[in-house]
Write a sequence for this structure.
């Protein structure tokens, strides 16, 4: 069904979400937001679980999980047998990093703009094993895909044991050329983990075409699945020896046995994936993703013109726009966080403020429920935040 022709988006679709519409939410990228119809399906699964937990855990859940994996695989151009569910992208990246054997002198290659928690996990693993972290340069706002790939290729050698590349960077909303990165890694005989936390539902994700060794993705962000819904895809030859961060009964009994049961938990978020995919398609699927990216571009241009500042990721076809803000004074991550808290607490506006070397930037997201007036409103709110910040300085 081509829902984009029949379903009005923006304010018209807001009743589908239980979001507090008294607040301005232009931050879908942070935690996602789940529509009522998907939450209702999750509740139905939870009711079935609580009606008879033993029957559910032993007889219903194993098959239901695999059916969800198959549905997700069809969306990602992958095979369901290669998809395990994890609570979030952080957990998926942890599973890969903590399953590999690193030794003194081995190298783990990351890049500038890497997601903080994943960078910390890599440093933790390196610290315990004597491995070394090497960082491929990725400047923002002037990062360039060809230069990035060239820089990455130049770092790979016989000591490189793992490369991690984000599909879309978190602090700068840049789409990285993961397919080219996979090619370069393959040529060098080095495995590649793609961190696609922001990928599924925001841009097209074609796992077969990317051809990495592992791809981690969130469904709770841009696919609007319930919170705690993510996946780890592993190429067939990378599944042996890959363990979840929680070892349980399935240990050494195969990839899916290990990941499908990690102890008693509420797995209903995974079982709501089909409903989330159906909702995504109902709103237009590829047309929705394109509409959201267009809206983010309009928002980026609007905010940059309003503040007379750069729109940093204009070349990137994503549903998030990065615009520098004219705050006075020094820039630091702590200051950006404090200002972001003020934005939410005093102005009821949810938009991340992110410190980069040249200043504090706002990252605005565009999802189905957003429309251009949201960003006009945001510009006025940011004017007041900037003014009061100057007055208080
Ligand atoms: C690139 C990247 N990796 C990992 C994460 C972590 O996602 P989660 O909190 O779902 O683990 C994020 C979150 O924004 C991200 O952008």
């Amino acid at each position: 069904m081509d829902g984009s022709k029949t379903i009005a988006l923006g304010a018209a679709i807001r009743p589908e979400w239980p979001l507090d519409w008294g607040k301005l939410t232009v931050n879908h990228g942070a935690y996602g937001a789940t529509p009522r119809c998907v939450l209702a399906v999750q509740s139905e699964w939870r009711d079935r679980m609580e009606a008879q937990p033993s029957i559910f855990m032993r007889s219903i859940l194993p098959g239901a999980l695999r059916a969800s994996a198959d549905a997700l695989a069809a969306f990602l151009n992958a095979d369901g047998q290669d998809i395990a569910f994890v609570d979030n992208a952080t957990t998926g990246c942890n599973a890969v990093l903590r399953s590999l054997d690193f030794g003194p002198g081995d190298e783990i290659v990351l890049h500038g703009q890497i997601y903080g928690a994943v960078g910390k996990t890599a440093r933790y693993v390196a610290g315990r094993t004597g491995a070394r972290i090497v960082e491929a340069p990725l400047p923002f706002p002037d990062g360039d895909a060809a230069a990035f790939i060239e820089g990455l290729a130049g770092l790979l050698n016989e000591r490189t044991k793992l490369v991690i590349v984000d599909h879309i960077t978190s602090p700068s909303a840049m789409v990285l050329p993961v397919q080219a990165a996979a090619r370069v890694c393959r040529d060098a005989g080095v495995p590649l983990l793609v961190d696609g936390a922001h990928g599924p539902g925001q841009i097209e994700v074609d796992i077969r075409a990317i051809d990495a060794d592992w791809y981690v993705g969130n469904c709770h962000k841009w696919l609007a699945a319930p919170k705690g819904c993510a996946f780890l895809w592993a190429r067939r030859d990378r599944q042996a020896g890959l363990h979840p961060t929680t070892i349980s009964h399935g240990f050494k009994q195969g990839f899916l046995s290990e990941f499908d049961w990690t102890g008693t938990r509420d797995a209903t978020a995974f079982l709501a994936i089909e409903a989330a995919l159906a909702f995504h398609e109902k709103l237009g699927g590829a047309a929705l993703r394109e509409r959201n990216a267009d809206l983010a571009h309009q928002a980026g241009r609007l905010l940059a013109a309003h503040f007379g500042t750069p729109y940093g990721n204009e070349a990137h076809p994503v549903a998030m726009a990065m615009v520098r803000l004219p705050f006075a004074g020094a820039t630091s991550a702590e200051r950006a966080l404090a200002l972001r808290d003020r934005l939410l607490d005093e102005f009821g506006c949810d938009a991340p403020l992110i410190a980069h070397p040249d200043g504090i930037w706002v990252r605005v997201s565009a999802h189905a429920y957003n429309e251009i007036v949201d960003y006009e409103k945001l510009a006025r709110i940011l004017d007041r935040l900037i003014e009061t910040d100057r007055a208080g300085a």
